[in-house]
Write a structure and sequence with these properties.
Number of strands: 0
Helix content: over 70%
Number of helices: 14
Radius of gyration: 19 Å
Order of helices and strands: HHHHHHHHHHHHHH
Length: 310
């Protein structure tokens, strides 16, 4: 394994900003759910983000794809990266705390490693990755609590829904690599949320009724945060950090999000998490750091493993 790329100070600053924005998005989503349903919460999120991202694409004068297959790939990406995970997590937040949702969301990187190994020949599971994945799974199980899974009540189903969202995120990363790697990331992000909007607007209207634009200012503020900052700006910031720090280091953002969500959830929503949630997050953090390569550097490895490991 080659030495982990160092993270420039500017990248650290923007990673912390990104984590703060995404951490707050869990809280703002929960705030909006006091007045609107989870489907409309997602429809607002992708719809307003779509307008903002196409505005960014226009300002950057980026070329739009003309191949219908690319637009079809955007639609599938919107389902995998927005419709399914946003919907499952929004519904889950009706029954579990924002901080716990953010902790379980960190499992995205764990499932991402598994999905990459299944679909890409150059992403095989090494010993380090296997240890990291198993440690991460132990963290998820601890955070959920095996006794909760045995009951299968609304709370346990909500936690499983969030985990289902992380699996969808992992599949989205595979789809993006296979189908959208040649597209400018800003165009891919705009196309993705456009596909999601085309699905979510009619789905929310049919299931939850017509859109209500007479929402309280608090709800509109929450929507503005998670749509314009937590989605549109966050995607643009994500790709900036990716270019500066690399994909392996960007994994660390998932460790920085829960502290923001937990603190904001406690201060703004009076949420309190069980000790098991913190223990699970600690295990998840260890698993992610192993996958990142910062606390597991085998001394004896082949040159080939060094090239393919994160």
């Amino acid at each position: 394994m080659s030495p982990q790329k160092s993270i420039p100070p500017r990248a650290w600053t923007e990673m912390l900003l990104l984590a703060a924005i995404w951490g707050a998005s869990f809280v703002s989503t929960r705030v909006s759910l006091d007045e609107i349903g989870p489907l409309w919460a997602v429809a607002h999120r992708v719809g307003w983000a779509m307008l903002a991202l196409w505005g960014a694409v226009w300002l950057m004068r980026l070329k739009l794809p003309r191949d219908p297959r690319v637009w079809g790939a955007f639609l599938v990406m919107g389902v995998l990266n927005n419709v399914v995970p946003f919907g499952l997590m929004a519904w889950g937040q009706l029954h579990i705390e924002s901080g716990l949702t953010s902790i379980l969301n960190a499992a995205t990187a764990i499932f991402g490693v598994i999905a990459a190994a299944v679909f890409f020949a150059d992403e095989r599971i090494t010993l380090r990755k296997a240890v990291g994945v198993m440690t991460g799974f132990a963290g998820v199980a601890t955070a959920i609590g095996l006794e909760n899974l045995a009951r299968l009540d609304l709370r346990s189903l909500a936690q499983l829904a969030v985990i289902g969202g992380t699996v969808s995120y992992a599949l989205a990363s595979v789809w993006a690599r296979k189908m959208l790697s040649e597209q400018p990331p800003q165009v891919a992000a705009a196309g993705m949320v456009t596909g999601a909007t085309l699905i979510m607007l009619p789905a929310a209207w049919i299931v939850e009724g017509p859109v209500d634009l007479t929402l309280a200012p608090r709800t509109w503020a929450a929507i503005a945060h998670y749509a314009l900052l937590g989605t549109a700006l966050a995607y643009l910031l994500y790709y900036r950090v990716l270019g500066m720090a690399g994909s392996g280091n960007l994994m660390l953002v998932t460790l920085l999000i829960p502290p923001f969500a937990i603190v904001l959830g406690a201060v703004l929503l009076n949420e309190a998490l069980r000790p098991a949630a913190y223990a699970g997050f600690a295990l998840l953090a260890v698993g992610l750091l192993i996958l990142n390569g910062r606390i597991w550097r085998p001394r004896h490895r082949s040159a080939k493993e060094g090239r393919t490991s994160i």
